[in-house]
Amino acid sequence: MVLIKLNGETYNTEKETLLELLSELKIIPERVVVEVNLEIIKRADLAKIKLKEGDSVEIVNFVGGG
Question: In what order do the strands lie in the sheet with 32-36?
């Protein structure tokens, strides 16, 4: 179990990578930007970045407008 900050809230997960976390949250990776500890993560690296205790993860959704 890993305790992280997710969009400012405490969140526990058993997932190991950012891609697994997005899947757990039912979020499509192509529709969001993910930042870990103030660093934007490239989509290609989501499966490579392992979550660590205390990480601060921000997930920002793209919103269309008109």
Answer: 9-13, 2-6, 56-61, 32-36, 39-41
The residues near 9 (Cβ < 8 Å, ≥ 6 apart) are none
Q: Does 66 have pLDDT greater than 70?
A: no
- Tell me the residue range of the domain where 11 lies: 2-61
Contacts of 48 (CB under 8 A, 6+ apart): 17
Average pLDDT over residues 38-44: 97
Compute the average pLDDT of residues 2-30.
97
24 inside domain: yes
36 to each of 10, 26, 64, 65, how far by Cα in Å?
14, 18, 24, 27
Decide: pTM greater than 0.85. yes
